[in-house]
Amino acid sequence: MTADLGNEKRALRADLRQRRRSRTSTERDADSSSLTATLQRFVEERQITSVAVYLSAPDEPDVRPFLNWAFEQGIRVLLPVTREDGLLDWAVGDGASEREGLFGMPEVVGEVLSPLAINDVDAILTPAAAVGHDGVRMGWGRGYYDKTLGSMARRPPVYAVVFDAEYLEEVPREPHDEPVDGIITPSRIITFRS
User: Fold this and answer.
1) Which of the pair, 150 or 188, is modelled with greater confidence?
2) Which residues, in sequence order, are bridge partners of residue 158?
3) Which fold has domain 3-191?
4) Using an 8 Å Cβ cutoff, are 115 and 94 in contact?
5) H helix runs in 46-84, sequence order
6) What pLDDT digit, counting tens, does each position of 105-150 carry?
7) Cβ-contact 61, 35 below 8 angstroms
8) H or E element in which residue 19 lies
9) What is this structure's pTM?
10) What are the backbone angles phi and psi of residue 116, rounded to the nearest 5°?
11) Phi then psi dihedrals of residue 179, to 5 deg
12) Residue 182 and residue 192: Cα distance in Å, rounded?
């Protein structure tokens, strides 16, 4: 990574973190309700029976109401478990039992499956800091999803979950940054490639 690109990414991430932290509780509640409806529509339209998701942190788009709905519908949900080596294991969870994982992020408590377990889901929903119009996903800098997605020979459709304002004209891209197939925001589903 060039120093300029690294600085550009750090500055954009800092700006996005600040925007997320400055959201009001009213904005968060409205987006949570809208995002839940959009995620439900995504799953129903595609007849998804298994999905890889994540446990959202307080400033992230709130996927927890969707997780509760998915469990009630009998959808198999895999949730990530971070590893020291930079890869993700996966666990089937109910979304209710969690612990603090590496870097202070919430993680599911449950039977841990291998990194290969994600190969069998119908779709992968990833967190992101922002996504460009060309499908380039910028994460938060740890590289877990880039490594996971980059290691898959055949992967199910991957959609990043972001706030509407985080769908940008473009984001800085490095060679290891993995593109996504689409985004899901509180107001819409956009597919870049199928």
Assistant:
1) 188
2) 124
3) Rossmann fold (3.40.50)
4) no
5) 64-72
6) 556 667 788 888 888 899 999 999 999 999 999 988 777 888 888 8
7) yes
8) helix 3-21
9) 0.90
10) -75, -15
11) -75, 160
12) 5
